[in-house]
What we know:
This protein is α+β, with helices and mostly antiparallel strands. The chain is built from 17 helices and 15 strands.
Amino acid sequence: MSGSGRGAGGAAGGAAPRPVIGLEIHCQMTSLKSKLFCPCRADYRGMAPNENVCPVCMGMPGTLPRLNAEAVRRGTMIAMALGCAIPERISFFRKNYFYPDLPKNFQITQLDMYGDTSIGGRGSVLVGGRTVGIRRVQLEEDPGRMIYEGASVQNRISLVDYNRAGTPLVEIVTEPDFEGPRQLRLFLQMLSDMVGNLGVCNPALEGAMRADANVSLEGGNRVEIKNISSFHDLEKAVVFEIARQEAQHSRGLEVAQETRHWDAARKITAPSRLKEEEKGYRYLLEADIPWVRIDAETVESLKSRMPESVSEKRERFVSRHMIPPQVADVLSSDKMYSDLFDAARTDKNARELANIITTDLMGLAMASSAAAAAPAAARDDVGGDAQKKKHDDPASDVIRVDGLRELADAVASGQMARNSAKQALHEMAKTGKSFAEVSSEMDLGLISDESELLGVVRSVISEEPQAAKQAYSNPNTVNYLVGKVMQKTRGKADPQVTLELLKRCLLGD
Ligand SMILES: [Zn+2]
C-alpha cells in the first residue's frame, strides 16, 4: 500500500467522503439506414453472423471511410437537445487499440484535442431539480461482438461477429455531477425518452443504450464500471461500488484505479483489465475523413427539424387534452405510444384514449413480451429491463389507429363500459379483428337499460341489508353497493344509471 493511500484513508472509521459519479452513455443510432463510414446496414439485428460487412467496416487495407452525413445531423440534434454548444467544425480521431472485434485495430471516434472538437461541446440538463453538466457529445463507430460458446471455461471458444462493426454511436459524456443512484436513474430515463422522442434511437432494442459509470469517493481514485446495458443493473452496480469503496476507506485502504465490470449473477463489481491510460490510445487525427463544417444554415435547419420535446408534449397533454398529470407522464415519455395517442385522439375521446393506452395497451404489451422474453433472457449476455421490452410486442402493431379510436370513442360516449375496453383490446390483439367485429361478437355493451338493471340492484340490496341501512347516512356505502352491482354485471352496468336506481330503491324502501 502506498503512503498516499494511508493518507487518503487516514480518517478510518470517520464518515466517508461523498461519492462522485459520472457517466459515459453509448447510444446506437438505430434509425439510420447505413453504418457510420460504409453503406452496410445500420440495423444488424437478426442477421446471420458476418453477413452485414464490407471491405470498409472489415478494415481492409486501401479502403477509405466515407462519413454518413445524416449521422452528423442526428448527432447534432442530440447535442442540441442536451443544451450543448455546437461547434463550427468537427473532426475525427483514431483511437488505437487491439481487440478481436475491432478489425482495423483502431476505432474512429471524436475528441476535443488540438483545437478540434466533437459534435457537441459543453451543455447541461435539469434532472430532478438539479443541473447535470454534459462534457461533450461525440460520434463514433461501434465495434463488432464477441460471442463465447462452450460448457466450461476450459472448453470455451470465442467467435467474432462483425455485423455491428462500424454502426453509428453517439457517446454522451457527463460531468461527475450525480449525487446518487436515484439521480442517475432519473437522468438515464430522461435521456432514453429524449433520444427516443428525437427518433434517433429506439432505446427498447437490446444493447441500444449502454453505459459506463465512473465512481469514486471525493479525492480518491476513480473506478470505471464498463458496458452495462440495463439501467437497472447500472444502478445496482453503482450502489455496490460506492459501498465497496466506502468499506475500503473505512479500513484505511486505498481504492485502486481500475476498470471493473458488473457481474449480474453474483451482484458485485469485479476487476477487469487494467485501466488503459488515455495516452495509451495514441490518438491521431483521422486524416482519411476531412473536417466537416457545421454552418449557421445547417444549425437553423436542424433546429426546425427538432420535434416537440418530451416535457412540451407532457404539458400539452395536461393543459390541452385534460389528461391527468400521472397519465401524461407515462404517455409523453414513450414516442411510439404518444404518437399513437396523437393519431387516434379526438376532442371527445382524449381522456379515455390516454387511459386505454397507458393501462390496457401497455399492460397487454408488457404481459405478452414478458412471456416471450423468458427463454431469450436465459441465453443472451445482456438482458434488458422488462419495461423496455414492451416495444417488441406485436399487440400495438395489430391494433391500428382506427381500432383504438373507435374503442376510445365507444367508452367516451358511454356505449361501452370502461372495464369492457380491456377485454375488447385483448380480443382485437389476439385475433386481429376490427373493433366492430369484436364488440358485436363479445356482447361488451354497457347495460344502461333500467329494467335490466333493476333486478340486479334489488338483489344486491337484499343481499346487503347492513350496507343498505347505512347508505342513508354514509355516501361511501352507496359506492360500495354500486361496486357490488358492477361485480354482478361483470363491469357492464352503467354506473350513472346504477346510482340513480340505487338511490330510488333505497329511498323508496
Ligand atoms: Zn461495411
